[in-house]
Design a protein that fits this description.
five-stranded mixed beta sheet, 3 domains, two-stranded parallel ribbon, 9 helices, about 290 residues, alpha/beta, extended
């Protein structure tokens, strides 16, 4: 017997085991006190729904490949400091969404390259299940050297020898970054084990904050007051200290950073014999 015959035989066997409609009608009438017309209305609707059940629309492989090509072509960036926790995570501009990508970008892309279109649900399915992409801003800012490398390698006209040299420089850069993270981890362990001997802090200038942050009305187009936030993190106790000031009170130079450090020492009053300071970005804070 062929496989199709076996399937049909099993299907008939399952159908024969179903409860007769007359039995369902009598039980509903006696136990639920339902009218006969209402019982048949419900049963008929259920049968029609099962008979005309909507199946998921299948898109051609060309259409699916077109979506993948579009997503691959969208500019992305990586978080340098989050590389160890999630090395494959990439980010898009925080102003974008899956819906805006599909409506504003993907449709135009398919029309330009004469590719068959897919539905928004299919686009979302491919985007979510096949890619590791986020929209919200990473906790840490991106590394300019990493971003420069990604822009360089995306140039298809770059000679192979120059591309190999860029890749080597990029690998050396990543190794130096990892060695710095390892050093911070080892110092943090020492500070936790022996706080009387070691006091380890990590300093970083956060993203500037517009004040007030409004998106509606004329206030959106008005000039904002920028606020600066500098963090000093006590690695031994895992406690953070934030120092906030506005642009009319100071800039982001070494004087402001030194003032934050002095203020931190006055507040924390560490009694350790050795003080280890690590800064995330020395150029950005003027050191």
């Amino acid at each position: 017997m062929l496989l199709d015959d076996l399937v049909k035989a099993r299907r008939k066997e399952r159908l024969s085991r179903r409860i007769p409609l007359q039995l369902v009608e009598s039980w509903c009438g006696e136990q639920l006190d339902m009218a006969t017309g209402r019982i048949w209305y419900v049963l008929k609707g259920d049968m029609l729904a099962s008979k005309h059940k909507n199946h998921a629309h299948k898109f051609s492989e060309e259409a699916v490949q077109g979506v993948r090509k579009f997503i691959d072509a969208v500019p992305k960036y990586r978080s340098h400091h989050n590389r160890q926790q999630n090395p494959n995570k990439v980010y898009l501009d925080c102003d974008l969404t899956i819906s805006s990508l599909f409506c504003d970008k993907c449709s135009t892309y398919c029309q330009e390259y004469q590719l068959p279109a897919v539905s928004e649900s299919k686009f979302r399915e491919i985007f979510v299940t096949e890619y590791n992409i986020g929209f919200k801003i990473p906790k840490s800012d991106t590394c300019p050297k990493c971003d420069s490398f990604l822009i360089t390698v995306s140039n298809s006209e770059l000679p192979e020898d120059e591309l190999a040299q860029k890749k080597l420089q990029y690998e050396l850069h990543l190794r130096r970054a990892e060695s710095g993270q390892d050093m911070i981890s080892s110092l943090t362990a020492l500070a936790k084990e022996n706080p009387q001997q070691y006091h380890v802090i990590a300093m970083d200038m956060h993203q500037t904050l517009p004040t007030p942050k409004l998106t509606a009305g004329p206030a959106f187009y008005k000039l904002k007051l920028w606020m600066y936030n500098y963090e000093i993190h006590d690695c031994g106790t895992n406690k953070g200290y934030m120092f906030l000031w506005s642009e009319n009170e100071g800039g982001r130079g070494s004087d402001e950073v030194g003032s934050c450090l002095i203020k931190y020492l006055e507040i924390a009053k560490p009694h350790a014999k050795e003080l280890h300071i690590t800064a995330r970005d020395r150029q950005r804070i003027g050191l």
